[in-house]
Design brief:
Layout lengths: L21 E4 L11 H7 L3 E7 L1 H11 L9 E5 L2 H4 L5 H15 L5 E6 L3 H4 L3 H12 L4 E6 L9 H10 L13 E5 L4 H14 L4 E4 L14 E5 L5 H9 L3 E2 L7 H15 L4 H26 L3 E4 L6 H12 L2 E7 L8 H4 L7 E6 L1 H11 L3 E4 L1 H9 L4 E3 L2 H4 L8 H19 L1
Parallel strand pairs: 1-12, 2-3, 2-4, 4-5, 6-7, 6-8, 8-9, 10-11, 10-13, 11-12, 13-14
Helix pairs in contact: 7-9, 10-11, 11-17
């Protein structure tokens, strides 16, 4: 498993990592962090997410998840009622009663998250203390953690970041005599996780873990011999929490498209000193198959102009993928937060002409978008319909989270997400 480390791919045109960024602080249009529950509850199979909030919170989660009436999801909302709002009841006693009832009904729950929301009455509650109290009451059968999904504090993908960061301090320390291990950080569909596990195994990286785990009773271990790869670009707090436990991040682009996936795998291979020959033997056929899957979309997307509104924090990796692998022209790439350290490799692969923006002043960004008249706009649901009525084709950024998009096998599916609204626009013109 040893050999010459692999060189990073050369980049012909690149954004300087200190390039100026248009920073905007104004009115925002974004989902709240509660939305992350939709994919998190499917991943951690023995966890339950109890939102402490209003009826609006309940309606958001239920409508966004699209749960069928006969399904039994692993999330719910403890709704603040009129008596709670009027201060006629003890909110902590009511919460304890709701948790007791929930756990009696669902004995399969091993990890319970109390998720804070944005109503002022919820903000006043000390959910961290409530989690400690409930965890002590229901131990050892159930562990109770808390995090905030409030839209005041988070964009919708930061809900996952807050959730995973809350889990990290509870993970056991790695054994003192443990070998170097790899942790892949970020929620992935099971099928994608299995694909990556096979790839790393073929590369000879056998000691590996995923965060979040599929079962909370099988947590990953963390320590100074842990090396981690971020699978999602919005996990700044989770990365910080892991580094505080002694883990080290492997710098890499994100595994979107053939190029991004190859570079991501190569970063881990370099860390484990995998030989060039072995790396090529494992990845070459899969990379070519991914590139072939992109061919059918290149003619449609090549030269098309695209504008990204800030929403998911996936904007920069997606812009790199669309620009370099499908030939799309980037007008503006907006992101809610720009973490230059985590995105350094991605930024180095963007064209010099791209406009980067951080934060949001939605009216100004709408003016720039209308003036540019892009062929495709990537934005949140709240902006999509109004822009469609103005004649612009849009792609909902939330679909990039709901759809398997990572890795070689999903490269064509990822391209399809951007090609589909352009095809729809052409049909409507006819």
């Amino acid at each position: 498993m040893t050999g010459t480390a692999l060189a990073s791919p050369s980049v012909a045109c690149a954004v300087d990592k200190e390039a100026p960024v248009l920073r905007e602080r104004g009115q925002r249009e974004v989902f709240c962090g509660l939305t992350g529950i939709i994919w998190l509850h499917r991943k951690i199979q023995d966890a339950f997410f109890l939102v402490v909030g209003s009826r609006t919170c309940a309606h958001l989660i239920q409508s966004a998840a699209g749960v069928m009436i006969f399904a039994e999801p692993r999330f719910a909302t403890a709704i603040m009622g009129e008596k709670d709002l009027a201060g006629l009841t003890d909110a902590n006693e009511e919460l304890d009663r709701a948790v007791e009832k929930l756990l009696a009904r669902r004995p399969d729950i091993k990890l319970l998250f109390l998720v804070g929301s944005c109503p002022s009455e919820v903000i006043k509650l000390d959910l961290s203390r409530a989690a400690e109290r409930l965890s002590a009451t229901h131990a050892p059968d159930v562990r109770v953690l808390n995090y905030s999904g409030s839209g005041i504090e988070t964009t919708f993908t930061q809900g996952e970041d807050a959730c995973l960061a809350a889990m990290v301090p509870t993970f056991p320390a790695e054994p003192a005599d443990s070998e170097k291990s790899l942790m892949v950080v970020g929620t992935l569909p099971d099928v994608v996780e299995d694909q990556f596990r096979r790839l790393f195994d073929e590369l000879g990286i056998e000691s590996m873990q995923f965060l979040p785990p599929r079962h909370s009773t099988e947590p990953p271990t963390v320590g100074k011999n842990t090396r981690f790869l971020l699978a999602q670009p919005f996990l700044a707090e989770t990365a910080r929490a892991l580094e505080e436990r002694g883990a080290e991040r492997i710098a890499a682009p994100f595994p979107f498209g053939a190029e991004g996936t190859t570079s991501w795998l190569r970063a881990a291979a370099n860390e484990w000193q995998v030989s060039r020959e072995r790396f090529a033997a494992v990845t070459e056929t899969k990379r070519r198959r991914a590139e072939l899957s992109l061919e059918r979309y290149r003619d449609r997307l090549n030269g098309q102009r695209i504008f990204f509104f800030p929403d998911s924090q996936l904007e920069i990796p997606m812009a790199r993928f669309l620009s370099r692998e499908l030939g799309m022209e980037l007008i503006e790439v907006g992101t809610p937060y720009l973490h230059r350290h985590h995105l350094a490799d991605e930024l180095s692969m963007l064209p010099e002409t791209v406009v980067l923006s951080e934060g949001q002043d939605v009216e100004r960004q709408l003016d720039r978008c209308r003036s540019a008249k892009p062929d495709l706009v990537v934005c949140g649901l709240g902006l999509a319909n109004p822009l469609e009525t103005e004649g612009l084709a849009t792609k909902w950024s939330i679909e990039l989270l709901f759809t398997p998009t990572h890795g070689y096998e999903q490269a064509g599916d990822l391209a399809e997400l951007f090609a589909r609204p352009l095809r729809r626009r052409e049909k409507l013109r006819v």
